[in-house]
Each structure stands twice: as C-alpha cells, then as structure tokens.
C-alpha cells in the first residue's frame, strides 16, 4: 500500500509541467533568501542589543529604522505586484521597455527623495505623534540624526524594487527584460 502510494507520488512529481517546476524553483530561491534575510535581521538585532544594551540609543535606532523603511517597503510590496506582469508583457519591445525603465527609475528616485525629505521636515510632528511624548529630547535628537543618516535607504529601496521585479519577470531561458 505504502509502496504504491510512493510510486504514484513519484510519477506525479516527474510528470509536472516545466512551468510549475520553474515556479517551484523560484519559490525555493525566494524562500532561501527570505530565511537568510530574517536571519541577518535577527543577528543585527542581537548585535545592537549586545553593543548598546537597552536604552535611548536603541530606542532611537529602532524608531529611525522603522520610520525610514516602513512606507517605502509597503509601497514596494504593492509596486512589485504591478510591475512583474507589466515587465513580462513588455518583454518583446526592447525600446519601449528601456524607455519605461528609465522613466520608472527616475520617478522612483524622485518619490524616494520626496518621501524621505517629507519625513525629515515633518520630524517634530512625527516624533510627537509616533512616540506620543514618551521619548526624551536627547532620544528625539538622536533619532533625527539617525533618520538623516539612513535616508539613502528610503531613497534607494524603490530602485531595488524595480530590479527585483525585473528579475522575477525573466523566464527560464535567460531572456532578460532589458
């Protein structure tokens, strides 16, 4: 009974269409990188806790990192859902794809600069709303300086999204989108 079930499962796996195999391989690669990214994030948190312990420095770091990455990462998730099918449909037209990519990358850089600048300009209001007055003046000042230092992360995260969507839209035969 068990042997026949294993045989049936083996035949079904071997008869899977190549598109499904490609999807499974892509999913495995994405899962691997998600696992590695989560592990790197955990090690980063442990290194910060080891180096700085608990206190205002860690609070400022966590708040700055969250503020500078939250909105871009939220928009990136939605943007990648839209871009992958678009890149696949534009694969045949190299000139149109090149022009679209140039315009999209420029717009994403402008959007990143605008969002990051808005965060820095509105920092006093953001600090009051987000922290509800629980942060000391020194922690708020430290957080502002960290935000200014981390601002390139917010700007460049959009271009990373475009590159990731282009990689996801490539087919098995190595046809690239550019």
From TrEMBL:
<feature type="transmembrane region" description="Helical">
    <location>
        <begin position="109"/>
        <end position="132"/>
    </location>
</feature>
<feature type="transmembrane region" description="Helical">
    <location>
        <begin position="144"/>
        <end position="165"/>
    </location>
</feature>
<protein>
    <submittedName>
        <fullName>Virulence factor MVIN family protein</fullName>
    </submittedName>
</protein>
<keyword id="KW-0472">Membrane</keyword>
<keyword id="KW-1133">Transmembrane helix</keyword>
<keyword id="KW-0812">Transmembrane</keyword>
<feature type="transmembrane region" description="Helical">
    <location>
        <begin position="63"/>
        <end position="88"/>
    </location>
</feature>
<feature type="transmembrane region" description="Helical">
    <location>
        <begin position="22"/>
        <end position="43"/>
    </location>
</feature>
